[in-house]
Amino acid sequence: MGAALGPPPRAHQIKLACLGRDRPGRAGPLRVLCCLSVDDALALGRPEKPGLPSSPVLEPRHIARLSAASALYLSDPEGTCTDVRAGRWASRADHLLAQLQSPEALTLGLTRLLQRIQSQAVGWSPSEGACVDLPQLLEEAARAGAPGSPGPVLAALLDHARSGSCFRALPTPQYFVDFVFREHSGETPNITLAELAALMQRLGVGGVSEPHGDHSEQGHLGKEASQPGPVPPASPNSSSSVWDTMCLSAGDVMAVYGLSEQAGVTPEAWAQLSPALLQQQLSGACSPQPMHPTQDQLSQSERYLYGSLATLLICLCSIFGLLLLACASCSAATHYVIQTFLGMAVGALTGDALLHLTPKVLGLHTHDGEVDLLPTWRLLAVLGGLYAFFLFESLFNLLLPADPEDPKDRPCSHGHSHSGHSHGVSMQLAPSDLRPPKQHEGSRADLVEEESPELLNPEPRRLRPELRLLPYVITLGDAVHNFADGLAVGAAFLSSWKTGLATSLAVFCHEVPHELGDFAALLHAGLSVRRAMLLNLASGLTAFIGLYVALAAGVGEDGETWILAVATGLFLYVALCDMLPAMLNVRDRRPWLLFLLHNAGLLGGWTVLLLLSLYEDNITL
User: Where is the region Disordered (predicted)?
Assistant: First the structure.
């Protein structure tokens, strides 16, 4: 692949199946497993359209993907052949490019990649000056005008593999000696007494130097030490900063000196090994490094600020909806607004769970160059199947003869079911035992009109025991639910502000109708408007507790992924088990209008989350 860093290669230049085999007399760079074809390589330019015919030219913008895919083949031929047959080669290459974005990840990731390539080598006799190492690859990429970019580095790697070069994943033993002398020797080639004292002080070893009385011996020793002695030979690693900050494990250090892990370190080998340990101590390579947020990630203070603002807005909007519901007169408009929010909540929850959180949990979101959108479209097809059956059931209910017992004459009725699960939201009137006496037909269930102040503090009335317990059950369940929402929002902002925005939008869309349903159920249980709003507000504050627990835990990337996975299940459960049945079971005098509003909310929620999933890389903060 001599043209990896130059113009686009033609089809006859792409020979990936048997790298190095066409050069007689030279050993191939890996155990050859000829499973690739030219069409496989050219298909890397169209991972989202595998059915299109191959083109004889691979465009320059796909060189990075080709280089990454070839590096995967060099490091794991059998696994790559399996990925090629399964159609995963392009997505694996994109995932590798995404993993190598930051400078720290690039150095560590390429080192591990070179180790795997080196383990596949056959017929190599690597000498210190012949094999290609990581500093050389980075230098070649910098000369090509793309320092620190994974694509050109992998292209240079592929170019050397094509020419039959061997690779060195770790530094040579001489590098550690060179590092100590480079860092602690001054103008002279040797380390002076003062420099040695400073070195020992930095290592935290040795005592205070005391003057010696035998000046003749000291002068003799000084004269002897001042004579020129052997100087460590120059090494290509001596000017490199790549390995200066690389933390090596015990196995890596033993591998550098060719020591067997089974045999261990002998006293003779320890003398050779000590410069490596000295270099690791002096360089501070294994010291904890402060995490620098990427462009999408937020600092700790920003996470608390944006997470608190998002949670506060969710709570305030829910309270504002309660105020409107409590102060408005009984009108069909209020009922239809709630139903539209209900449809939007289902769309936002399922859209965020499938289109945004699921790719992030599975590691399918890559943001390097051209994003592979195939997983997004497949997950959109899942929503398409859900929508098709929703339409089928909705139309089935509309076209069947109506049940005469259905309360179709109560467009402003509300209820809250807690019999099957704790948070079933129903915008219908609850059973008759939840209705207060002397309720006028057509009025909102237990919602007090503005001109009836005496109803704000209703007189105590005899309630059944289960009704007296119902407010506490509702409040407790709502508090747990809001705590889980806070955890989801906190984990989302830990990941990135874009994930936090999408999750906050989904939580907001389902919290508004959910809180309205809780509010109506509390009123049905005999509470006054003031007390019902107070309990709703108290349960909403647990969202802040969940938010701060998630942010304070400071979980790593794996922990964030697990929390987002649990949040995905929570969103799907609330949407499909609580809110979707409420949409299907609601009855109204104008069923077709209700059907249209449900569809508008559902499609609107999906559209917003789809656009956010497709174009989130183009949004900047």
Answer: 207-240, 407-459
